[in-house]
Amino acid sequence: MYIARYYEQKVQTLYEHLYNVAGICKEYGKNIGLYYTAMLAGILHDMGKYSEDFQNYIKKAKNKETYSEEKVDHGVYGGKYLFEKFSDAKGPKQISRDIICEVITYHHGGLPDNVNYNDKNPMIERFKKISDEQMKEVCDRYFYENKCVDINYIFEKSSKEIDKIYFKMNERSFEIGLVIKTLYSILVDADRLDSYLFTLEDKPDIEFDSEKIFDKYAKVFEDKILNLSQSECLCERTKELNKYRNLISQKCKDFSKAPTGIYTLTVPTGGGKTFASLRFALNHGKKRIFYIMPYTTIVEQNAQAVREILDCEDDVLEYHSNIVESKKIGDYELISERFDYPIVFTTMVQFLNSFFAKGNSNIRRLHNFDNSVIIFDEIQTLPIKCMSIFYKTLVYLKNVMNTTSILCTATQPDFSFIQERLNITLDGEIIDSVDYIYQNLERMNVLDKTQEKMTCEDLSNFAVDIKENISSLLIVMNTVSSANKVYDFIKEKIDSKTEIILLTSRLCPAHRKVIIEEIKKKLKQGENIICVSTQLIEAGVDISFSSVIRSLSGLDSIAQAAGRGNRNAENEKGNVYIVNVIEENISMLKEIEIGQNHTQDLLWYFSKNSKKYDNSLLSPKSIKSYYEFYFSDNEINKNMDYIIDDSEKTILNLLKNNKARISNYSGIYPLCFMQQFVKAADYFQVIDSLTHSVIVEWDEQSKKHIGILLSNENLSEKNKALKELQRSTVNIYDNLYKKLLEENAFIPCENENINILKQKYYNKERGITLEGKNKLEMY
Known about the structure:
The chain is α/β, with parallel strands linked by helices.
């Protein structure tokens, strides 16, 4: 009997583990057309555990003996066996061989750079370390126990699968890397899942019948829609608004019969796109529904809204950097690393990390995006540097993984340019009457006040004058520094009947959420209020002010700010004022600066011929024209492929087959792909990390958890406390961090990577500040 692992007094045989993993792999793989390919990876992945070295290692580990040997490289055996057995493979067989060999060989360490700095192939170099005698020993033992495994038959079938997939690809040089990652995801998840389930006495039910679940929720949703349509509404304007929301929702339901594709859903702010897209997804006949959002606050808000309308607590997973929310299983790893739920809410960061970031915990989720509907909310917030790899990935998801993507926003980017630039094809717009709906849902006038350049004090005077005739006003600035200045000036000028609130990224997420809920309550009660905020309030925050002032930025941001005004048609029409604040320093915020320039281009053309833009700066024609300016900007265009400071120039290039990369390789290059997976992952970050995470004490709960971190509690309790404190963490740029270090503002902690701010440096109004100075550098 050969051993795979021990757990307490239980023993899992190697035979049992291999067949379990192969069984899970083939079930995952069949959804993508990789049934035999995944099975072969599963049945061979731990072949090396038959070695005498590994069997000695695992027995010593069970007995907790003290020994100095390093862990045995068991992954290399299955890869080497397959590579040598089919050494003369050509065409689809070579592709199949190379993919499976790489996935097996690296299933514990992460996918490699296929050419290293010595111009060698790391996998081939690993193969060379295994002697013929070692291989013979392992193969003899493996096939003695696994007599029924017909490797030739499975490999032949696998090659045919790969051949079919190869011809589905749009850009093979890039997408072959995604096939490797998909198979890797399948194997890693199957391997870890079987290992985890082996430790349990009672196996959890991790399967679900998506057709049954979504049919049930579709009926619940239709009943809710019917009840809402029959409910009485005193406000005629809200009735009219709901009429168009229902029209949008119905169009989404009707469109759900469309084939798998990449579609846009262009809906004005407040048009109900969250529920409309949900209606599409419930009726589209896929296995899972993903909502991908730009910010954690929107994840939390929309996840709760969907739970309430569908009454579906048990079938929703909410996963982001701050928290994992699930009502089903308590095991953190099983929940967060698998995404194996009917409905999943997560962030764009987590989505892109699944494909491009370091770590097996990220890539483990990738295969579960198959046969799904993925709803990307506020798609205009996608970082420019990620555009190429993002849209090319969507094409792969459609063609290979049978997944539909919905790109939702009120400010849809210019996809004609993107399609031509990236050589991709999108499949159309869900709403066939976008212009008509925008005209009838317009609830805000946009007024250009940029001709008069303002200081922060000028803006405060302007705001106070506007506030005299309305109950509530939102002011959105581009930087924390300018928001603070405007806030201070208004505090000096405003009457005591009006409450003024500051909302910036210097407040921790949990604190911001409390403040936003308080603002909503005050607005509902008709109280006098001015909120000065940065752009964090723009995307997806369901809130409604009488009027809005927006510091000059890209038109997409202005339109999103407008969506925070008169959201539910409380008034006939509100106003959005675009202002030009000369004191705002945005030199480090290049995309905002470029957006400003091209908004000014549009404002000039609009002033000359507003009819061309349907007399509205929020019309689809205005937004399209703005994006034509924006995407034609050389600074934007050249950054779409994710530029890196390296001779290879871009992450996109690292993830493609580039023959120049092997120009110095001695002899015939042995594989059919050359991707640099490690190098690309080392560079990849959705959000630039020139920031430091700082834990703050802002309420009794955060105080309690900080106390645990600083106590003598065990590591498990400290990890729980750290997880809870993610909601009480603020990311700050290096300049402020260094100033806080100079002030000795951090509490010493045994883990030097954890920054805990002294309480006096966290202000209940402003968030993180410098004690006694209120100097807040630009965020």
